Each structure stands twice: as structure tokens, then as C-alpha cells.
Amino acid sequence: MQGKVIDVTLDTVVGEVMNMKNDGQRLVTFSTYQEAEKKIGILYHFDKDLEATHLRLVADMDKPIPSVSGVYFAALLVENEIRDQWDVKFDGLVLDFNRSLYLDPEVTQVPLVSNVKIEPKK
Amino acid sequence: MATTVIPFGPQHPVLPEPIHLTLKLEDEIVKEAIPALGYVHRGLEKLADIRDYHQMIQVVERVCGICSMIHGVCYSQGIEELMKIEIPKRAEMLRVIWSELHRMHSHLLWLGLFADAFGFESLFMQFWKVRERIMDINEATTGSRVIVSVNIIGGVRADLSPDQIRWILSELDIAEKEIKAMQDTIMNDYTVKSRTCGIGVLTKEQAHELGAAGPMLRGSGVAQDMRMLGYGGYSEIDFEPVFETAGDCWARSTVRFRETLASIDLVRQAISKLPEGELSVKVKGNPPEGEVYTRVEQPRGECMYYLKGNGTKHLDRLRIRTPTFANVPPLLATLPGCELADVPVIVLSIDPCISCTER
């Protein structure tokens, strides 16, 4: 993959993202993938002068992930998208759509995770 | 002062596609804007589970009609990088030609819509008249006006004959003349300037921090364009990014106007450097295990694809980040402080493509 990849953990992700911001990096977006059963991989993509850098976080899907929207406001949309598509919660999200950015309240299937059902909203 | 809440969209005359903004106002001044998406979410990324990596080209071309060619380029070059396929130089240059034609017709479409947004109907019609020439070139060379569908994994499926090249160059000469005839109006007309100058200002620092892309970023003085990466045929041609420094609606429209003229130059350069040779190479096997992060410059800005292969004909993951998705947070930053009457112009100034954003 183009660019340097740095592994981070739940404890270090916000600090590392802050370091990227202090370094003048522009947040491009996050990418997500299923690392293993009930584990999500998140790549935080950054750009500085067309050079890409990525932070890789592997986390349990059933535990909240620290939001970086307090560091980069632009992260709020992609974190809400991940919330919709993977049913992963983010701690400290500055604007939480509560799984309704794209999805209708009656949706019970988690779009990108097979065989996981969620309660429809009332 | 009492706060008034005004719903903007999802149906609004300046919005070709639906997005909703909850605007909180004091008197006529916007204090806060909160977006709501989800009206055209299709879940196209999920289709990678059931469509093989060749079929996914047709899917990604439908992420957005106006940017369809460049979505195809981004996806194809991602798969080609994953599978370590080197495509013929002629195919690379043909991709540049159709990409720039796409950029031109997208910008001309937007310039017309922008003129329409502030009530300049004749300018709207003039831009769309020129756009028809570009659409005719697409139709004559690929069979389709919008979704040209020329990309395949390993190259392109269509070619340009010498007669077609001569005709394209003559059409571009006429288009250039017609576009330049509108330059003074779009950049200097009193009506245009009064509706765009100093409206919806995004500073250079804000643009960078909020992750703006494309003309939204370059209109704020950041001279960054993914074509500077030199992907595909862009490594063979001279390219300088167009940028402005005012950061307002005028700057964003001027960037798009100047980029339209720059695209004509890029097509001419690509045609002059179009080598002889094959259009594609044969592709065997499936994408191996691995990850690819690839970026291209669409008319609306930087587009990113993340592909994860697993050795089968289906990708493990396809992730698409489109430029409008990146430009929503900057839009939210430009709205507070503006007058309600300026909201349609500011919203349109990001060239919103909601079907792209929601995929």
C-alpha cells in the first residue's frame, strides 16, 4: 500500500491523530474492513504534500472506539458512516446521528457485517 | 434574539440531488447548519461481495454519472496495482483524454447550474450549449454521452481513429473560443461578483484542517491536485494545478472555469503524445491478498479507493471516499454568518454530488 502504515491501539489512537494534526497532515478519510470475526480494522488516511500516511487500528466491534472528531471535525461524517455500516460505537463523537446517517429506523441488518441483527429504532 | 429553524432541502431548486440542512437563524443570519443524509444511499460498496472484480467496474461507474469515467480509472488502477498489471501506454493516455473530457463537461454543467442559482439564465444556457460539444465527443467516441464505460482491467475497450482525433481537436478549438467568450462575464460581471465575492469564505487553514478537496481546497489557496501525483498518463504531460486565494464562491467558480480551459490543453497534450500500440493486456487470475490505496482527481476533487483482495474473484473490501463527502464539513464551516439568501449559492459552490457521497 502506498504510504507509511503506523499501528495504533485504542489507547494511543487519539494521541497519534493529534500528532498527525500537529505535523500538518490533512485527514483524507478512514477505511474499514473486517479483520476477523467481531474485529474491525480501521485505517486512518492522512496526506501531507501528496505523501500518504495511514494509522491502522484493530479493535473489537462490541467495544466503543475513541472518536477523533474532537481533533479533526471532518471525522464526524466518516465515524457516523462506520456506526451505520458496522454497528460500531464511537466515544465522544461531536455529532452522533445514532445509526441514522444513511439507514432508516426500521433497518435491522448491519450492512457490512454478515448475520448480525440489530433492534429497529422506535 | 429568537432562533428560527429553516429546513433547506432535501428538495430545493438548486439541488439536483437530495441533501437536507437544518439551518438555525437569528434574523436573516445563519448561526448553525446541521446536515442530514441518507436519501439516496444505495450501498454500492457491498456489491463487491457478489460481483466479481471485472463486473465491479460497471458498479463504480454508477457511483456518479458525471464522474463515471474517473471512478472507473481509479478502480481499474487500484486493481491493476493489486495484480501488478502494467497497462499499455496508449491506454493510459486514452484514459487521460476521456478523463479530461469528463472534467470539462462536469465543470460546464456546474458553471451553468451556478449561473442559474443566482438567476443568470442566459449564462446558464451558454455554458450548457458548449457542454453539448463535449457530450457529442463522448457519444461519437464511446457510444455514450455520460457513462462512457471505456475502462477495463488491463486497459481500455475503445480507441480513437485519426479522423476522430482531428475532429476532437477542431471541436475543442471551437469550445475554447466559446468558453473564453464567457470569461469576462463569469469572472467580472457586476451581478456575478455581487452574489459570489466575499460569500461563503473558507480560509486556507480551514480548508486544510477540515479536509476540503478539489476546487473547494484550491479556491482557498491550497495548490494541491491529485494529478500532480502523475498517475497513469499524467506522468507524461505537463500539469500545473489551478488555484485561487480568496476562498469565496467567486474563487471556487473561477477555479472551475480555469480548469475547464486547462483540461482542453491537457487533452491536446495527451493527443499529441498518444503512442501507437495495444489498448489492453490480457488479465488472468484473481486479485491476490493485499491492500491498495489509490487516489485520483475528479472534477469535484480528490477521490480515494481502498481495495482489499483475498485471492478470490471477489474483493474482501471496496471503500470509496468521494470528494463531496470530504466537502460537507467545510460547507458546514462556511455557512455560519452568511445570509439566508446566500445559502443556495454557497451550497452549490461545493458542486454537491449526493449520489457520490452516499454511494
Explain the overall architecture.
The complex is a heterodimer of chains A (122) and B (359). Chain A has 122 residues and is an alpha/beta fold. Chain A has a single domain (4-91), classed as 2-Layer Sandwich (Beta Polymerase, domain 2). Helix content of chain A is 18%, strand content 33%. Chain A has two helices and six strands, in the order βαββββαβ. In chain A, the strands form two sheets. Chain A has a four-stranded mixed beta sheet, with helices on one face. In chain A, a hairpin with a 2-residue loop joins strand 2 (26-36) and strand 3 (39-48). The longest helix of chain A is centred in the middle third of the chain and has 12 residues, at 75-86. The termini of chain A are far apart. The mean pLDDT of chain A is 87. By secondary structure, chain B is α+β, with helices and mostly antiparallel strands. Chain B has a single domain (3-358), classed as Cytochrome-c3 Hydrogenase, chain B, CATH 1.10.645. Chain B is 45% helix and 13% strand. Chain B contains 13 helices and eight strands. In chain B, the strands form three sheets. In chain B, strands 1-2-3 form a three-stranded antiparallel beta sheet. Chain B has a three-stranded antiparallel beta sheet with strand order 6-7-8. A two-stranded antiparallel sheet of chain B has the order 4-5. In chain B, helix 3 packs antiparallel against helix 10 and helix 4 runs antiparallel to helix 5. The radius of gyration of chain B is 20 Å and the shape is globular. The two termini of chain B are 40 Å apart. The chains are: A alpha/beta (122), B alpha+beta (359). Chains A and B meet through strand 2 and helix 2 of A and strand 6, strand 7, strand 8 and helix 11 of B.
